[in-house]
């Protein structure tokens, strides 16, 4: 499979955000996440259809569903490069926020927060 210029731009933009390009497919990037429920992998795609449109989509399974099912972007032939770049960034930010908002990621974030009450109990008072 030969990559289109949009697919190359997509994978480069995702790589700059910490995603990894697939070793086989030129239109795919992925990122591993450590969640409260264990490791999960998100996969994003830049597919070109028979009409020449490019469609960005993703898969990240959490809570029994694809959390990225509502994250997408579409580029028709002739879309200017600035619009493509902006939409790739919007898609990436939306996908990452959607992943961060999943239950397992929110629990992981809560578990990573320091326990303020325990810290206050361990800190000696000024008069003590």
Describe the protein.
By secondary structure, the chain is α+β, with helices and mostly antiparallel strands. The protein has a single domain (5-109), classed as TATA-Binding Protein, CATH 3.30.310. It is built from four helices and seven strands; from the N terminus they run αβββββββααα. It has helices spanning 5-16, 81-100, 103-112, 116-122, and strands at 20-21, 28-35, 38-48, 54-59, 61-62, 65-66, 73-75. The strands form two sheets. Strands 1-2-3-4-7 form a five-stranded antiparallel beta sheet. A two-stranded antiparallel ribbon has the order 5-6. The radius of gyration is 20 Å and the shape is elongated. The model has no long low-confidence stretch (mean pLDDT 91).
Please give a quick description of this structure.
The protein is α+β, with helices and mostly antiparallel strands. Helices cover 38% and strands 27% of the residues.
Q: Which features characterize this protein?
A:
128 residues, elongated, TATA-Binding Protein, 7 strands, alpha+beta, five-stranded antiparallel β-sheet
How much of the sequence lies in strands comes to 25-35%
Uncertain regions: pLDDT < 50 for 5+ in a row?
Answer: none
Number of helices: 4
* Major sheet details: 5 strands, antiparallel
CATH topology: TATA-Binding Protein
One letter per element, helices H and strands E, the order comes to HEEEEEEEHHH
Number of strands: 7
Which sequence of strands runs across the widest sheet? 1-2-3-4-7
Total count of domains: 1
Shape: elongated
